[in-house]
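Side project, low priority. Logging it here so it doesn't get lost.
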Amino acid sequence: MIYLVTYITFIAILYYIVGPKKIWDRILMYKDGKYWTDYNLIEFAAWMAKAIIIVPGLIFGIEIWYFHFFTLLTSSLLIWASMRKALPTLIVFNTIWIVISLTIIIRNLIQIF
């Protein structure tokens, strides 16, 4: 219960500082068909792929290692998308994520074989 209260409190304060209307307007962009360009679709898929790995690991202590094949693909595609959006932080972050994914994939494949 303490976690839920902490999450809600933190996010409520953050959204209040940034501006709830600004955040809501950005979230509503998902409903606009023009938003779903090739690079925004890749970016969405990549963040969801990372969430599939991070959330079970943090909350339940479960590593779903084979999802790293998907994050390897989406992180690689995000580097391409970074060229379209001119976001160097995405290049660096996704290069790091590629190294993480490859490390976990190799570690698990070595155990299997």
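Brief comment: The mean pLDDT is 92.
Revisit when time allows.
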